[in-house]
From TrEMBL, chain A:
GO terms for molecular function: ER retention sequence binding. The keyword NADP does not apply. Keywords: Endoplasmic reticulum, ER-Golgi transport, Membrane, Protein transport, Receptor, Signal, Transmembrane, Transmembrane helix, Transport. It comes from Phaseolus vulgaris. It comes from the Eukaryota. Its main location: endoplasmic reticulum. The chain crosses the membrane at residues 56-76, 97-114, 120-140, 152-170, 182-202. GO terms for cellular component: cis-Golgi network; endoplasmic reticulum membrane. It is a multi-pass membrane protein. InterPro entries: ER_ret_rcpt. It is found in: Endoplasmic reticulum membrane. Pfam families: ER_lumen_recept. This is ER lumen protein-retaining receptor. Belongs to the ERD2 family.
Length: 215, 10
């Protein structure tokens, strides 16, 4: 565990918990793509199938459980919470996300580290995470709504990506034979898509600020 | 398990 990896995990955790708390406190999920959140829940469930087979550390197990539980809690709130669900932008969140799931699974069948159920699902979760932000990007472009997607969520999610890339560079330089072809390539794609998301978020945020000029 | 790489990152 190096400092970049720890910072990456902490900012990732903060981004998810902040979104959950924000939704719960304001009782609104306006501007949040449920499809993106469902994809993240699928990502964690399929990546952490090794919870039951491999023990790495208490930290590792604890973080996996928290990630699965918090992402499921966000999805639960958006689907079933009697107040929160009413603010969901259903008609704007129309991205065909089954296409992403299918494409990621197909790629995982072709490119994986070992042909086993666990390893194919692990690769699938890595590819799906890389593109999971797309429904949120589309929703943001359509609604221009940045009320609920707080600056902090966007900031911490971006910091998580940046720290993980620094972590891989650090491990590549310090550990003999360290390579992460699948995670590394997907990580770069994910960061590029995130940069696009950030760009639109910033434009949207700027435009909203302009609209708030006193009449 | 021997021979299998464990995914130590989250």
């Amino acid at each position: 565990m190096n400092v970049f990896r720890l910072a990456g995990d902490m900012t990732h955790l903060l981004s998810i918990l902040l979104l959950l708390l924000k939704i719960y406190a304001t009782k609104s999920c306006s501007g949040v793509s449920r499809k993106t959140q469902e994809l993240y829940a699928i990502v964690f469930i399929f990546r952490y199938l090794d919870l039951f087979t491999d023990f790495i550390s208490v930290y590792n197990t604890f973080m996996k459980v928290v990630f699965i539980a918090s992402s499921l809690a966000i999805v639960w709130c958006m689907r079933f919470h009697p107040v929160v669900r009413r603010s969901y932008d259903r008609e704007l969140d129309t991205f065909r996300y089954f296409f992403l799931v299918g494409a990621s699974f197909a790629l995982a069948l072709i490119w994986h580290e070992k042909f086993s159920v666990q390893e194919v699902f692990w690769a699938f979760s890595i590819y799906l995470e890389a593109v999971a932000i797309l429904p949120q990007l589309v929703l943001l472009q359509r609604s221009g709504n940045v009320d609920n997607l707080t600056g902090q969520y966007v900031f911490f999610l971006g910091a998580y990506r940046a720290f993980y890339i620094l972590n891989w560079i650090y491990r590549y330089l310090t550990e003999p034979r360290f390579t992460r072809w699948i995670a590394g390539t997907s990580g770069v794609v994910q960061t590029a898509l995130y940069a696009d998301f950030f760009y639109y978020y910033f434009i949207s945020w700027k435009n909203n600020s302009k609209l708030k000029l006193p009449a | 398990p021997l021979g299998q790489r464990i995914h130590d990152e989250l």
